[in-house]
Design goal:
Helix content: 55-70%
Number of domains: 2
Number of helices: 9
Number of strands: 0
Largest sheet: none
CATH topology of the largest domain: Tetracycline Repressor, domain 2
Structural class: mainly alpha
CATH superfamily of the largest domain: Tetracycline Repressor, domain 2
Mean pLDDT: 94
Shape: elongated
C-alpha cells in the first residue's frame, strides 16, 4: 500500500469507513469508494492495492481507536474490569460493522503495526491480572457483545445481570 499516513490514503480509509459504518460490509467495494471520492475505481489502486489491504487499514484504524478508548476507560479506575467492559461494549455498539470487520475473521497480525495488538489488549490484561484470565474475559465479552449486536438475547431483564455475573467471575482473585 502507498504510505498509510499520506493524506490521500487517509481520505480513502475515511470514506471506506463512512460507507462501512452507514451501509454495512456490502457497501465496501472499490467501485463504491471510488464513486464517493469522485474518481474511477482503477485510480484507487494507485494508493490501495485492493480490498484486502483496505480492510487491513480499516482494522488498524479500529484497533487504534479501540485501544485509546480502553486506555482512557481504565486509566486510574478503581475497578478497571467493568470500566473496560463498558468501553468495549460502547465501541462495538457505536461501530458494529467496523467491530465485525475487526473480529469476524482471522486477525491479519503480520499486517498490523508492531505492538498494536498488545496495546489494545493491555487494559484488559491489567484489569484481569493474568494472560489466561484476560483471554477468558475476552471470550466472554466478545461473545456477549456479538449476541447483543445480533439481537439474540430476549428483552427479559437478564442480560444486565448476565454481564454482572460474568464480570464478577472474571475478576482477579484478591491478594
Amino acid at each position: 500500500m502507498a504510505d498509510p499516513a499520506s493524506p490521500r490514503v487517509r481520505e480513502i480509509v475515511a470514506v471506506a469507513r463512512d460507507l462501512l459504518e452507514r451501509e454495512g460490509p456490502e457497501a465496501l467495494t472499490m467501485r463504491r469508494i471510488a464513486a464517493a471520492l469522485g474518481i474511477r475505481a482503477p485510480s484507487l489502486y494507485k494508493h490501495v492495492p485492493g480490498k484486502p489491504a483496505l480492510e487491513v487499514a480499516l482494522t488498524v484504524a479500529g484497533f487504534e481507536e479501540a485501544a485509546a478508548a480502553f486506555e482512557a476507560a481504565t486509566a486510574g479506575s478503581d475497578d478497571p474490569l467493568p470500566a473496560f467492559v463498558a468501553a468495549y461494549r460502547a465501541f462495538a455498539r457505536a461501530h458494529p460493522h467496523l467491530y465485525r470487520l475487526m473480529t469476524d475473521r482471522p486477525l491479519p497480525r503480520a499486517d498490523l503495526p508492531a505492538g498494536l495488538e498488545a496495546r489494545t489488549a493491555a487494559p484488559l490484561l491489567r484489569a484481569t491480572g493474568s494472560p489466561e484470565r484476560a483471554r477468558a474475559a475476552f471470550g466472554f465479552v466478545h461473545g456477549m457483545v456479538l449476541l447483543e449486536l445480533t439481537g439474540r438475547f430476549p428483552d427479559d431483564g437478564l442480560t444486565g445481570r448476565a454481564w454482572a455475573a460474568g464480570i464478577a467471575a472474571l475478576r482477579p482473585a484478591p491478594r
